[in-house]
Amino acid sequence: MSPKERKPGPKVAGRKEHFGRPRQRDAPRPPERRERSDQAGSSGRFWLYGTHAAKAALANPRRKFHRILVTERTRDLVPANLSPETLPPDAISRLLPQASVHQGIALLCDPLPALNLEDTVGLKPPGGRLVVVLDQVTDPHNEGAILRSAAAFGAAAVVVQDRHAPPESGVLAKAASGALDVVPRVAVVNIARTLERLGRLGFWRIALASDGDTTLSEAAAKGDVALVLGAEGAGLRRLVREHCDVSAHIAIADSIGSLNVSNAAAIAFYELRRIKG
Amino acid sequence: MSPKERKPGPKVAGRKEHFGRPRQRDAPRPPERRERSDQAGSSGRFWLYGTHAAKAALANPRRKFHRILVTERTRDLVPANLSPETLPPDAISRLLPQASVHQGIALLCDPLPALNLEDTVGLKPPGGRLVVVLDQVTDPHNEGAILRSAAAFGAAAVVVQDRHAPPESGVLAKAASGALDVVPRVAVVNIARTLERLGRLGFWRIALASDGDTTLSEAAAKGDVALVLGAEGAGLRRLVREHCDVSAHIAIADSIGSLNVSNAAAIAFYELRRIKG
Question: Which of A216, B6, B265, B270 suits a disulfide with A267, CB 3.0-4.6 Å?
């Protein structure tokens, strides 16, 4: 969702207005075949499916649902205060994008309400925080896997660029295996300015790049760290890299050019935690 | 490809018979629309596409091609002794599975000839070798990313189970970003027996599992290591785990169940290399 799309309408509203307050409850959406889409139009409403992703979404008080579809087998996954529709597996499949492996549960959701960087990062005590900054990682499988690892290593937030990140979708949520509803995902307009803000908050900003100046262990610091990862292929943009305190690489064999971005991220999270540990 | 399919026909033949020797050169296959498939029938013949994957395949003397399609822009990627067909990008797209991002190059290939474990592992000096064993990792994106990381960290081989691994395909090759033609991939019939063979070769066998007994650093050893990774979801099978010397886990937060298997693999490769280094 671009900022342009979000600013004027009621979809943005104040960040806090969305917490715990259902919206559009007076106008429930009737079942429609045109909802068969992973990412349905400018509302950002989308089908989230699969047991891990759905359980995490159902446990997230910030997540709003428009429909909850289950099978006889998955009914028990849904809290008693919600009213799911029970359908045969095939009927659920027909509402979802082709080849979606829904495992008997699908939720028609709104994207999560927007988060503010300083507030989000402030929820964890300073000193050992990890913030992950994604500079135009556009593949939802990659971002999903990064969210999953970020949650696994207790990251305080994952920052993405509003116009150059995948929208919330079933594919992103499935790849994140629940982490989309666990790790705070902060969308910002400008990555370079966000790095300035993180600098003011005392974060040590490490740019991960295959031609980085030092090894990751040398670049790591004991305090709060912001780890900045670039796009598949293109890597970090120059301006983004210039806004970091240090650039680091993961030492790999010459026979292969680079690691997959989610694999590089997982290694970096592990190494940063190990050094702090 | 199952062993049943491979044993009788000329496709298996002796392992060495395939090295550097083109086959079926007397009967070039005419262009056919039914080749539009990622993995074409029992021959295993498939379209490999994308610049990284194609460059690595063209540089691999063990890889045999039936057709080489390029655009005006990618002609120079093909060695002078081969004769590519130059086509518009759209015409290439029409021959490939839908939504294949071919970047102007596609190769109709045979799968690589089978490799023997002992011979393959014997190509590297003993003492610091890493062999990766995949127990029924079936998703080609995951296996591809694992191959890519295995190549990046200089693994001696990646072992997969013949009937429970993805066949060679464009998706696997693209996810591997060239590593399918760089890291030796050994298909075996039985993983437990393969672990016995690796044990006899002196490999220290580490089972990676979320409930593993020790941390990865504690489980690691200085000599040759076989790292065994289980399927997405199901994890390692009991019998496979019992054939390992030790089980190890990667310490992660409680809020998320597990890491993506390719992310766990990347961390493990990094950690094993770090400890040896």
Answer: B270
